[in-house]
Design goal:
The structure holds 2 protein chains of 2 kinds. By secondary structure, chain A is an alpha+beta fold. Helix content of chain A is 60%, strand content 13%. The longest helix of chain B has 23 residues. In chain B, strands 1, 2, 3, 4, 5, 6, 7 and 8 form an 8-stranded antiparallel sheet that branches. The chains are: A alpha+beta, B alpha+beta.
């Protein structure tokens, strides 16, 4: 490993290496110096021995002299004298020039190497010794070379004289030499001690450098690493995207954001293949495409930006099944980015974003836009309607829907019962339609019209089963939603109005309560291609007691509409009959002298035709042929109050459903009122509704009650 | 469209009884309940719906009906587990039928079986469920369809 690869560990490795090198050097120095010291110690010993040898030489000369004096065998002492001379000579030469010296005596085969002395003082001693020793060689050398046989007492005397004279000096030189060499050895030992002490000091310094600087640095690094890891994990646990790395084998890395767990609802992602994560979320072909796409990202020559549009997981809808059995739909967006290390793609970073809220908001916005388009009509009508009238309408419609739903729920399973339900529903729906038409709430008017279609279809089918009502229930649900959103809309408008309460409505509420009748007449007349003039009197909240407002409006709406649809003729027909092309409908409300209230609706239209009523009743199976023959005109006229009766030849938005008068009858009767009908052929029709002056409140709007209707022909 | 979708679930239920149990069911008049009202008998098989429309469809029946159904299917063991299984079978047939007829834009799950009340199901407040009363012999059950 190269030093620059070590990064932050470079310093500590260098320090440790320095420590080792230093240690090795000290050890090596120690080894060599110790070896030198050992040699020098040996040399010191040898030098010391030289001193001893000078004394031994003199001693051996005296012993030789003694032997010769008493004429003893001199061989042994001569040999010792010669050996001593030899050993001293070899050693001294070796100390000067270097060489091998026997360890114990001259005959010893074991040798030690002696290096020449190198200090100046020692050299002087050796040189002085050698100079002196030269005399010894000259005097003693020939004696030794002649051998023990030739030795004479005289020679020995002379030798002793010379040796005795110089021996002390030679001894001194040798002792000096010994001292100098000892001194040199001591110096080296001391130097070694210093070097070792310095090395120990350096090692300690090095240790502290490692301890304080590098350990500190490592500790700091560790802290930084720990902090980085902490930050990393904080980021991963906080980030709102699912983040993870994929390697070339498409295996998920060990670190991923917390959000990923939330998105996929599973913890065990580490080391799993991407396919495992996406299983059950995308189709096999999508998975294959995704894997191919990621494979492309690992190819260096492919331009990342160019292939972004190929990402098959840019936005996917994922349905995750919860434990309760319901699906949780999520919209996920996957983004893949290359991660480069040393300029090569090492991983792909995957970012998963949960776009559910955005997508749902977009969708809601889209729905709201569509809805808003549909609501504009409603909005316009709501804005032009007096608030209480509109709330009344919504309440009544809701009551009707709930009643129908209750009836649906409690249905008995037989044809007759079903038939009765259909008739009941027709009446309720027709009434809601009438109100909607009067208030110009066209979506509701349209929906209720569709519902009437469905009911007619049910009624005309041969066999009515529970399932026959399915299309009706579906439409009922839709009506439910419509009324709900209208209520919401009106509440929103009310809120806006509350916020801008300084803005006064254009018309006074009192007058507004019945103003929709005017609108209704105009619209129905237009639709029916008729010309109608509506005259109202007393139809306002000054005259109509609050408790009757809803009822009077309901009845007036139905009767005025009937007058326009069924009574007033088309303009050319009227002209043929010598009437003005414009018909007149009057709606008058007043309190009579007896305290009762009277609502009169008069038109100058066609009046009623007994024959037409007869024909229609027979056609619609309201009565049998035999029965009708026995019926009086008044009884026949009463048939128009039967549920299911209608005389308009075509079914249109405004008439022909066979409900209408029965609803009015119902409404009047339940308020304890009476209804009078008079007519004259081609002259017109007059309805008078008498409501009691003493008001009785009723809660059930759609109940069947006894008939209390009078019809008279004028 | 909506009516046809509802009809698919009804047909699935009818198909199960007429094909496997040998006796047809009577389908009652459908009515509406608010989404927080759960029409539940003793055992309920729920299938989740996602995709084009979201919500759930469940078939709920009393134990007595399911016991008779098991007998009709030739199963003598009327233990709890088997009652759960058979309500699941009905839901499964409804699910399969819907998968076949409603096309790929509908995602339809396999059934989840719930015993007792259906408190865990949370449906959007503003929508209503269609309740289709089902009568089989003397016993009553219900198919409930709740779709946004």
């Amino acid at each position: 490993m190269l030093l620059h690869d070590l990064g932050k560990y470079r310093g500590i490795v260098a320090a440790i290496t320095l420590f080792l090198v230093l240690d090795t050097c000290v050890l090596a120095l120690n080894y060599f110096v110790s070896k030198e010291i050992q040699q020098e110690t040996e040399s010191v010993n040898l030098a010391g021995r030289q001193g001893m040898l000078t004394q031994k030489l003199l001693k051996s000369l005296y012993e030789l002299q003694d032997d010769l004096a008493v004429n003893l065998d001199v061989t042994e002492n001569f040999q010792e004298f010669a050996d001593t001379f030899g050993l001293f000579d070899v050693t001294l030469v070796a100390l000067k020039e270097g060489g091998m010296v026997p360890v114990t005596d001259i005959n010893d085969t074991e040798m030690i190497e002696v290096k020449p002395v190198n200090s100046e003082a020692a050299m002087q001693s050796v040189d002085a010794g050698l100079q002196l020793w030269q005399q010894y060689r000259e005097i003693l050398g020939p004696i030794i070379s002649n051998g023990s046989k030739q030795v004479s007492l005289l020679d020995i005397h002379e030798s002793i004289a010379t040796v005795k004279e110089t021996n002390a000096t030679l001894l001194k030189f040798m002792n000096d030499l010994t001292r100098y060499m000892e001194q040199q050895a001591n110096e080296k030992t001391q130097m070694l001690q210093y070097v070792e002490a310095a090395a120990v000091l350096a090692a300690i310094l090095n240790f502290f450098v490692i301890m304080f600087i590098f350990v500190g640095r490592l500790k700091k690094n560790d802290e930084e690493l720990e902090l980085a890891q902490k930050e990393n994990s904080e980021i991963l646990s906080t980030v709102k995207e699912g983040l993870f790395l994929l390697d070339q084998e498409l295996i998920i890395g060990s670190q991923y954001s917390r959000e990923l767990v939330n998105i996929f609802g599973r913890e065990d992602l580490d080391g799993k293949k991407l396919a495992v994560l996406l299983k059950d979320m995308v189709s096999d072909s999508e998975l294959q495409l995704s894997e191919d796409y990621i494979g492309l990202l690992f190819k260096e020559h492919v331009n990342e930006n160019l292939i972004q549009s190929l990402n098959p997981l840019k936005q996917i809808e994922v349905n995750l099944l919860s434990s309760s059995g319901l699906f949780e739909t999520k919209y996920l967006s996957f983004q893949f980015n290359r991660v480069r290390v040393n300029k090569l793609v090492s991983h792909v970073l995957v970012t998963v974003m949960d776009r559910t809220i955005e997508v749902e908001l977009e969708r809601e916005l889209e729905e709201a836009k569509t809805k808003a388009k549909g609501e504009v009509d409603s909005l316009v009508s709501i804005l032009s309607i007096e608030k209480s009238a509109f709330i009344d309408f919504l309440d009544k419609a809701s009551d009707g829907i709930n009643l129908i739903n209750e009836e649906l729920k409690s249905s008995n399973q037989d044809h007759q019962a079903y038939m009765a339900k259909v008739v009941q529903f027709q009446r309720i729906i027709h009434s809601i339609k009438g109100d909607a038409a009067a208030l110009e709430v066209s979506p509701v008017e349209k929906k209720t019209h569709e519902m009437e279609d469905v009911l007619t279809e049910i009624k005309n089918s041969d066999e009515i089963s529970g399932n026959s009502f399915l299309p009706f229930t579906v439409k009922l649900d839709e009506l439910f939603s419509q009324i709900g959103s209208l209520r919401l809309l009106s509440e929103q408008i009310a809120n806006i109005n509350d916020q801008h309460s300084d803005i006064q409505p254009a018309a006074t509420p009192n007058m507004q309560s019945f103003s929709e009748i005017n609108t209704l007449v105009k619209r129905v007349a237009e639709d029916e291609n008729k010309m109608v003039n509506l005259v109202t009197q007393g139809l306002d909240s000054h005259h109509v007691p609050p408790a009757y407002i809803r009822k009077v409006r309901e009845v007036a709406v139905q009767l005025v509409r009937n007058a326009v649809v069924h009574g007033i003729e088309e303009p050319n027909k009227r002209v043929e009959l010598g009437k003005s092309p414009q018909g007149t409908v009057k709606a008058l409300f007043q309190q009579k002298e007896d305290g009762n209230y009277s609502l009169i609706i008069v038109d100058d239209g066609a009046g009623l035709s007994v024959n037409r009523i007869k024909r229609h009743a027979l056609k619609n199976d309201l009565v049998s042929e035999q029965d009708i023959e026995k019926m009086s005109n008044a009884e026949i006229l009463n048939l128009i109050f039967q549920p299911g009766f209608s005389t308009a030849s075509d079914v249109s938005m405004h008439a022909g459903r066979g409900v209408g008068l029965d609803v009015i009858k119902q409404s009047v009767v339940e308020a304890g009122g009476k209804m009078k009908l008079s007519y004259k052929q081609n002259k017109g029709c007059r309805f008078e509704i008498i409501l009691p002056g003493k008001i009785t409140t009723t809660t059930k709007t759609y109940n069947e009650t006894e008939q209390n209707i009078g019809v008279e022909q004028v | 469209m909506k009516e046809e979708q509802l009809q698919v679930f009804i047909e699935g239920t009818k198909y199960f009884f007429s094909t496997f149990a040998g006796q047809q069911v009577d389908v009652g008049v459908p009515y509406l309940v608010s989404s927080d009202t759960k029409v539940a008998f003793d055992y309920t098989g729920i299938i989740g719906i996602a995709g084009a429309r979201k919500g759930c469809v469940y078939f709920s029946a009393p134990g007595r009906l399911l016991a008779k159904l098991l007998q009709a299917l030739g199963e003598e063991d009327l233990e709890d587990d088997n009652l759960c299984d058979v309500v699941g079978e009905v839901a499964n047939t409804v699910s399969g039928n819907a998968r076949r007829d409603l096309g790929p834009e509908f995602v339809i799950s396999v059934p989840v079986i719930v015993k007792g009340q259906l408190e865990d199901i949370k449906l959007p407040r503003e929508i209503r469920s269609f309740v289709i009363p089902i009568t089989w012999g003397q016993d009553k059950a219900a198919l409930v369809i709740c779709l946004e």
